Amino acid sequence: MEKKKRKGLGINVKKLAVDTVHDALGGILYAIGVYTFAAHADFAPGGITGIAMIINHFFPFIPIGLMTLLINVPVIILCYKVLGKGFLLRSLRSMVIGALFLDIVVPMFPYYQDNPLLAALFGGILSGAGLAIIYLSGSSTGGTDFLIMSVRKRIPHMSIGTITLAIDGAVIVAGGFVFGNINAVLYGVLMTVASTLVIDKLMYGSGARKMLLVISDESEKIAQRISNEVGRGVTLFKATGAYTGKERIVVMCFCSKREITHMRSIVYSIDANAMVTFSTVDEAYGLGFKPFEEDQ
After folding, report:
1. How many CB atoms lie within 10 A of CB 48?
2. Quick one: which of 154, 185, 36, 198 has its CA closest to 106?
3. 98, 123, 130, 172 — which has fewest CB within 10 A?
4. pLDDT in tens, 167-184
């Protein structure tokens, strides 16, 4: 079906609407995590938001959201060539929407100011969920996100959560000095770890797939059944046992979690002595899985 585009502008209206909804949902979750919980608990999480919270501690008249936008300007200039115009424009939209929620919408409601441990935990969970939603739509909230995406583009096998944890450490330690106690560092670490776990779980958990490997004397029959009944593409390749020296055909196939039981039953209905392994793949791109889209 042909995509609907606004004449003369080449804008995919449907995609723009969906991305804006993602930005709004992710932005409000992130704003609740940061403003409602973390901003009033005397600690700073990692990232540009943490820097903005530290500045806000000294200059309360500067809103956190506005400060993040101002700090992002030099970061945008540094990362422009690496990330590309398309990604930066999408991220700018996400940043503005997030700042509006952070400075205008969420402050209209009561904030939490009781147990800093709970503030760090729920702040991390909510902000992590918000960031994951924005990341999954192919955007970011700027700041260290740009640095994170730049690093990941250079080192794609590193998870976003791992890079985030490495970059945010300095900001968390700085928050400890600003707020004058070690607890501020611990709470900052807790919030960042909680956010990291949620980001990785939502991003990689939602896109995770299974890889099937089968070693059998009936590999061709197994491959044919999987292809016909499950509808997945199957790859066959030769392998030689190191101990026996016997050559066999190995079946390799990628599938979703719900297809595991069906595939296992197919294998053992043909060869009860087959060796079968399933392993988790963080992301799978291609026909039947995620489409691969290069950032323009």
Report:
1. 25
2. 36
3. 172
4. 788 889 888 899 988 999
